[in-house]
Amino acid sequence: MKKVITFGTFDVFHIGHINILRRARELGEYLIVGVSSDELNFSKKQRHPIYSQDDRIGIISSLRFVDEVFLEESLELKLEYIRKFNIDLLVMGDDWAGRFDWVKSDCDVIYLPRTPSISTTEIIEIARTT
Ligand code: C2G
Q: What is the C-alpha separation between 130 and 86, in angstroms, rounded?
């Protein structure tokens, strides 16, 4: 069975998140998603997610093309997660292109094109100013 992994914050869940998760699942037979912890998100983006990590995990877990979900506590632990879950393929959006090539020792890596014209940051901005 081909196992795929992907990672993300998935805050203020939107169609871009759906698209990457669906395409990731189509590249294999079992999809595991690492949802970034609140703390990890703060260290990456200097702001707290709008949705708590428990709610973000709840949303991702309820998708029919997601088979398993866990909490991603550090960007540097990718290889440990990949080994632990016996992963064949890492899928990320192309905003991360090249950034995780160092796990190619243990699995394949694919960067998929992002869905244009939508992002959590933009949604927050629109909500704030309208
Ligand atoms: N994404 C997308 N199209 C968009 C917006 C997001 O394809 N319009 C993808 C991103 O490329 C990413 C995934 O959706 O692969 C999750 O996006 P974020 O929640 O922004 O994830 P991020 O905070 O970048 O966390 O270890 C890696 C990090 O945890 C990734």
A: 46
pLDDT, the chain, mean: 96
Q: Are 35 and 10 in contact (CB under 8 A)?
A: yes
Ligand 1 geometric centre to CA of 52 (Å): 16
49 touches ligand 1 (CB under 6 Å): no
20 CB less than 6 Å from ligand 1? yes
52 pLDDT more than 90? yes
What share of the chain has pLDDT > 90, as a percent?
Answer: 87
Average pLDDT of the residues in 43-47:
88
Residue 33 CA, ligand 1 centroid: distance in Å: 11
DSSP 90-121: EEEEGGGTTTTGGGTTTSEEEEEPPPTT--HH
Q: Residue 37: how many CA atoms within 13 Å on its side-chain side?
A: 9
